[in-house]
Design brief:
By secondary structure, the chain is an alpha/beta fold. The protein folds into two domains: about 240 residues, Aspartate Aminotransferase, domain 2; about 120 residues, Aspartate Aminotransferase, domain 1 (Alpha-Beta Complex). It is about 35% helix and about 15% strand. An eight-stranded mixed beta sheet has the order 1-9-8-5-4-2-3-14, sandwiched between helices. Strands 10-12-15-13 form a four-stranded antiparallel beta sheet. Strand 6 and strand 7 form a beta hairpin. The protein binds pyridoxal-5'-phosphate. The site of pyridoxal-5'-phosphate has 14 residues, from helix 3.
Length: about 375
């Protein structure tokens, strides 16, 4: 069995990336400065439609700077979706702030408005109003944009939208990455597009973009010498990586269409299988890039077949799949922090599986995946 490995999600180049990298070499802007950066940012701004974009060396750096721009300081409390990748929450700790984790609701798997409001009221009653709400567009599906915004406005708490997985997703025709007071993208190797590693922070004003850029480039004051009155960071993207980003923007929409085809493929594969549900958006207001297709397997309805059984069988055929993100409130590193909600995130984690979803998977790859699934469930 020397069949190639099928991965969850791998980089998929469009073709022009190396040309833009060559431009950087030709002009000798092998630096965190240069025209690829300007053009990549412009391309992203055009794509998103609103907001000012600053590209950085990771999505995690973007979340860190976003929290700083929203005024988070040591000892502050930050509300954060529990069902997410740890990078949504780690920057809270970088700042010495305190994460308060919130359960998901079952329709989008993102922030539960009821648990969120309960948490806000309780934290205020305990004497501290939370500083920021971190809302995630998990697996490309927008969170309940309007419900969460109403709460944010009611209690005057800004939203940091973590759209790391949701470039190209929309709610009512508007792009994810534009709903937060500050929003964040990631271009890591596994995401919808990649710069090998990178991220972006999206701000509503040019003044905030300038502030993000200032902090991302060591907080150097304007002076002929090196003058600093604030702590800075080395978070700017390199002009080489931005060249990859330029090339990737040319194929973004066609690659999203291919990921959505993978999602349709799974809807078809699982259509007659009792107890397995492919995760889909709640209604037509939501448009997902379906970064990863995920399924829930309810072992009470599958005569005992669990997500772990499917995962191990796929692995045997050299096909990668993975449990959903393990909620942050169940992670040893965050065990001391408060959690508001029920067991929605926990159940998703127990029963959920992410399936190979890359835009570069072939018909042969799909055939191998389908064979494993049908073989398991037809028994
Ligand atoms: C990938 C990811 C990040 C972090 O982005 P990096 O570019 O890898 O630092 C943050 N949040 C979520 C939800 C992610 O999936």
């Amino acid at each position: 069995m020397a069949e190639n490995k099928i991965w969850l999600s791998t980089p998929h180049m469009g073709g022009n990336e190396q040309k833009y990298i060559q431009e950087a070499f030709d002009s000798n802007w092998i630096a965190p400065m240069g025209s690829n950066l300007t053009i990549f940012e412009q391309d992203l701004e055009n794509y998103l439609g609103v907001g000012h974009v600053t590209v950085l060396n990771s999505g995690t750096a973007a979340i860190h700077l976003g929290l700083i721009l929203l005024g988070v300081k040591s000892g502050d409390e930050v509300l954060c979706q529990s069902m997410t990748f740890s990078a949504s929450a780690n920057p809270i700790l970088y700042l010495g702030a305190i994460p308060i984790f919130i359960d998901s609701e079952p329709e989008t798997w993102n922030l539960c408005p009821v648990a969120l409001e309960t948490a806000i009221i309780d934290r205020i009653a305990k004497g501290k109003k939370p500083k920021v709400i971190i809302a995630v567009d998990l697996y490309g599906v927008p969170y309940k944009i309007e419900e969460i915004r109403i709460l944010a406005d009611r209690y005057s708490i800004p939203i940091l939208e973590d759209s790391a997985e949701a470039l190209g997703s929309c709610y009512k025709g508007h792009k994810c990455g534009t709903f937060g007071d500050i929003s964040v993208l990631s271009f890591n190797g596994s995401k919808v597009i990649t710069t090998s590693g990178g991220g972006a922070i999206i701000t509503s004003s040019l003044a905030l973009k300038k502030r993000a850029l200032f902090l991302a480039t060591q907080a150097r004051e304007e002076a002929p010498h090196y003058q600093h009155v604030e702590i800075g960071y080395n978070y700017r993207m390199s002009n080489i990586c931005a060249g990859i980003g330029r090339g990737q923007m040319e194929v973004l929409d066609s690659h999203i269409a291919l990921r959505r085809k993978m999602h349709e493929f799974y809807l078809d594969v699982f259509k007659d299988i009792e107890g397995v549900t492919v995760f889909i958006v709640p209604d037509d207001n939501f448009f997902s890039n379906y970064w990863l297709t995920t399924v829930l397997i309810d072992p009470t309805k599958t005569v005992g077949i669990t997500r772990e059984k499917l995962r191990l069988l796929l692995a045997k055929s050299n096909i990668e799949s993975r449990p959903l993100w393990k909620p942050m409130h169940l992670q040893p590193v965050f065990s001391e922090y408060s959690y508001y909600g029920n067991t929605v995130a926990e159940i998703l984690f127990s029963n959920g599986l992410c399936l190979p979803s890359g835009s570069n998977l072939t018909a042969a790859d799909r055939g191998r995946i389908k064979a494993v699934v049908l073989n398991l469930f037809s028994k």
